[in-house]
């Protein structure tokens, strides 16, 4: 197995960092790796807000369900879908179609993942922060995001403070990748995976604010997280920012 594949297969989120900063060289290399990511029709509809101001970092942490590592990480980057730049170049194009939301979200996700992979390849660690969307209106205000820009995900990057946590088991290939046709859920395989996750959670229980109920296995986890991830204000917010109106 080559080193890139090994790196990808060994991924695990890191939520505890030393207070060592990244060197400028490391930061630039991560940015360049992210910026070279494929982009839908080369629209490059992504902007990154790098939060360097500690007061602002604290505010963002508070808006993102108080996850302490947002403040502790050497770097905190917020990946935004950004059609404001494209809009200034082509002001007559109607950007209210939902497809633009998909394009921007997908590009931002790919770019963020290249940033994380680049960081991990340097022995650094990171974790995404989807919770930046928990108070998205307020975050939009504090970051001064104009119309056609929405914050999608944060990324903490830093030097791991301790040994990286163990690899979290994933669903088996037969439940995730199908030949030619979609396959219904296989209850037996699900039970096996659920048992694997029960064993995993026994050693590494999920702590608040990530759970509201006592999560024992993956089925519990799904129920818990699906309900909490609703963000019922989202459509109204997206429309206000000029996205997904039709
Ligand atoms: C889009 C996205 C948003 C996430 N948001 C958070 C978050 O707000 N807080 C957090 O601690 N982890 C967050 N994570 C990390 C996941 O919890 C983590 O990737 C998952 O549990 C699998 O663990 P692993 O990355 O260690 O394999 C997020 C991951 C993704 C892809």
What does this structure look like?
The protein is α+β, with helices and mostly antiparallel strands. The chain has 2 domains: 3-165 and 235-240, NADH Oxidase (3-Layer(aba) Sandwich); 173-225, no CATH class. The protein is built from 11 helices and 4 strands; from the N terminus they run H-H-E-H-H-E-H-H-E-H-E-H-H-H-H. It has helices at 3-9, 24-35, 54-63, 69-72, 84-89, 98-121, 136-142, 173-176, 187-203, 218-228, 234-240; strands at 46-50, 75-82, 125-129, 149-158. Bound molecules: flavin mononucleotide (FMN). Flavin mononucleotide binds next to strand 3.
**What small molecules are bound in this structure?**
flavin mononucleotide
Question: How much β-strand is present in the residues?
Answer: 5-15%
> Which second-level CATH architecture of the largest domain applies?
3-Layer(aba) Sandwich
**Secondary-structure class:** alpha+beta
Order of helices and strands: HHEHHEHHEHEHHHH
Largest sheet: 4 strands, antiparallel
Mean pLDDT: 95
> CATH topology of the largest domain, which one?
NADH Oxidase
Number of separate domains: 2
Shape descriptor reads: globular
Q: Give the name of the CATH superfamily of the largest domain.
A: NADH Oxidase
Radius of gyration: 19 Å
Supply the number of helical segments. 11
Please give the order of strands in the largest beta sheet: 1-2-4-3
Count of strand segments: 4
Query: Could you name the ranges where pLDDT drops below 50 across 5 or more consecutive residues?
Result: none
